């Protein structure tokens, strides 16, 4: 029977009672815990020998990390002597090494605690280094080349690379603002001087005896002044702060279309079937310029136009349809660039200077929106997409 019960993990023997001998087995601690085990094994328990080495968990953990070899632990960690009768006893030996710390924990616990601590320290250091990058990214989004200087914070704990990145952002911001100021000053100076020359030239032309030639010359000068104003606006669009406010697009669009109709534009507003109000955060003056440019462009090429409003997900979409040739080919997107025209003759009577859509696109982007060019079954379609404002 004992042979059947024996296993690689348990050794059983029946010995005479006078064989009850035990010792400390060298450096391992041995003590009798008869009373503590008697609660489970009963009065038949004669003796218990525990060969459980008490180790320093932190010292062993560092020894393990250093790759030092450790001595083997005893295979007979627990031995029980159980009385069978007055002459014989059963000796049960555990053949599996049991190693614990003075705290009653496995020796690998110390290494695990140290590893977890090192991982936590690594995460904290990584978070400390990443936090400045997140703040830098948020501040870069706020940089306005024509506005106030954004001050980047200093981080005492940041590495030299983070400090170098901060200084690079400051230099970049300074160069952008210098370039923008120079650009605006140059364009403004040119506009002022040319307007002055054009005004003096128009005064001289008014003295021409031929009325027809005089009117043509004055019209050309007026067109030149308008072109200069549009070029300056195209250069300034998207720079500087906008006087943004909450705009009810339904109400605003109805008033703007009525104003355009009153000055002779063939434009009509298609009523919405949805009752939900659509609001955007926008500059009314800039938004009016966008709408006027889109309507003027539609009427130049399509005689009349239709304006409609809809909500698509998180955007308010103002659509301007015309009955002209539409937008053809992949090069249609180039029409949003300054001085690019769909009408290749370059005649001012058949089209503008190619700045209307460019100005509208720049102002839309300054509001976080966009201009999309497309077609409907009877002509061209321009869609103004603006982020909807939900309270």
UniProtKB/TrEMBL annotation:
Enzyme class of the recorded protein, top EC level: transferase
Reactions it catalyzes: ATP + protein L-histidine = ADP + protein N-phospho-L-histidine
GO CC annotation terms, alphabetical: plasma membrane
EC numbers on record: 2.7.13.3
InterPro entries on file: 2C_sensor_his_kinase, HATPase_C_sf, HATPase_dom, His_kinase_dom, Sig_transdc_His_kin-like_C
Superkingdom of the organism of origin: Bacteria
Domain Histidine kinase: 189-390
GO molecular function: ATP binding; phosphorelay sensor kinase activity
Pfam families: HATPase_c (PF02518)
Keywords attached to this entry: ATP-binding, Kinase, Nucleotide-binding, Transferase
Xref: Gene3D superfamilies: 1.10.287.130, Histidine kinase-like ATPase, C-terminal domain
Protein name (record): histidine kinase
Annotated organism of origin: Roseibium aggregatum (strain ATCC 25650 / DSM 13394 / JCM 20685 / NBRC 16684 / NCIMB 2208 / IAM 12614 / B1)
Organism ancestry: Bacteria, Pseudomonadati, Pseudomonadota, Alphaproteobacteria, Hyphomicrobiales
